[in-house]
Amino acid sequence: MAYLKLKRKSLQHNYQYLASKLDAEGIEWGVVSKLLCGTKNFIQELVDLGVREIHDSRVSNLKTVKQIDSGIQTVYIKPPAKKAIPSIIKYADVSFNTELSTIRLLSEEAGRQNKLHKIIIMIEMGDLREGVLGEQLLEFYGQIFELPNITVVGLGTNLNCLYGVMPSQDKLIQLSLYKQLIEAKFNRKIEWVSGGTSVVFPLLLNRQLPKGINHFRIGEMLYFGNNLFTNKGVKGMKSDVFMLHAQIIELIEKPKVPSGDLATNPSGEQFEINEEDYGKTSYRAILDLGLLDISTDFLIPVEKGVKITGASSDMIVIDLGRTKRNYQVGDWVKFKLKYMGALGLLNSDYIDKIVE
After folding, report:
1. CB neighbours of 135 closer than 8 A, spacing ≥ 6?
2. Among 32, 33, 48, 130, which has the minimal tally of Cβ within 10 Å of its Cβ?
3. pLDDT above 90 covers what percent of the chain?
4. Where's the Alanine racemase N-terminal domain (predicted)?
5. Using alpha carbons only, what angle is made at residue 72 by residues 69 and 78, rounded to the nearest 5 degrees?
6. Do domains 8-233 and 242-355 have the same CATH topology?
7. What is the mean pLDDT of each run of 10 residues along the chain (356 residues)?
8. What dihedral angle (degrees, nearest 10) is formed by the CA atoms of 175, 178, 183, 188?
9. Cα 64 to the chain's mean position, in Å?
């Protein structure tokens, strides 16, 4: 069985790097745990880092956080579904909101549970996912700020999550101005301008982050160390927090070109033959995982020269060329991962998850 390894030292290194940069600017921040899919031993690693604020988009994952350490502030990072409101009040200290009717229900449920629930109003800044329109914000806030058992602790936005709209100084300055408008009109203090995410972090590194942004939510950058503007690694960060280990279940020298009439495979693909490969052979290894677990687009072989040639539901085939490179049946092949690949593996019951 393939397994996914979390490298503790790399995670600690990246956390300390991020903390040093954000703390130096006086910016509060929390770690987004949704990639971990509620994997308890991995969430424990976040807690052991000293994280005091964890964000997630699944209530069950926030429940796991509270079971590990009830003192951690939990943040539910999408507009709540009405059916989930009792659980959100129970396990989330803060939630992102965009709908007045939902906030009223949160207020009522918080009263029943004798709690004060914090909310962040999400504002639409161009990516067209969740968010109240800017021109409607003052009216929206005016209807909720006096609701019992509810307190607005921040304004926030998400960029690059749906259509790929990138953050800019102008957009983030506008977000900060909304805070000033609310505070001036209603004489109320808004604690957070939560405009910071992994995709915004490069603006901080380049000294381009507007001063008003005082809260970050960091996930992908912690786990992969990527600059999402350049799609390259950030100098000083580790890219190997997660490592996939897949076992070889067959290793045979075979022709490079299939034989017989070709049609589409179960994935809807049709193989195109390279005529230069006729008559050639290579060592082909079959790995004990497949498309049910991960798309091959999200796999990055660690060893140079390893080439992924295809996959079916439960097996991936790699080409080792004319040499076996000392591999044997039962050996492990290592891969780094892209974000969506790690997400699929972490959500799979068929992949073991261990900590190094």
Report:
1. none
2. 48
3. 90
4. 9-226
5. 120
6. no
7. 96 98 98 98 98 98 98 98 98 98 98 98 97 97 96 98 96 98 97 98 97 97 97 96 98 87 77 77 95 96 92 95 85 97 96 97
8. -70
9. 17
Q: Give the Cα separation of 33 and 329 in Å (integer).
A: 36
Strand partners, 233: 226
Token duo for residue 79: 């507009």
Which residues touch 323 (CB under 8 Å, ≥6 apart)? 283
- Could you say which DSSP state residue 329 is in? T
pLDDT for the residue 322: 76
Q: Where are the domains of the chain?
A: 8-233, 242-355
Give me the pLDDT at residue 326, please: 86
Alpha helices in the chain (DSSP H): 8-24, 40-49, 59-68, 85-91, 100-112, 137-144, 169-186, 201-205, 220-224, 339-346
Distance, in Å, from the CA atom of 66 to the CA atom of 45, rounded to the nearest integer, reads 14
pTM score of the predicted model? 0.94
Q: From residue 180, how far is each of 68, 123, 168, 170, 339 by CA, in Å?
A: 37, 14, 19, 15, 36
CATH 2.40.30: does it fit domain 242-355? yes
pLDDT at residue 163, as a whole number: 95
Yes or no: say if 58 and 34 are a contact pair by the CB < 8 Å rule: yes
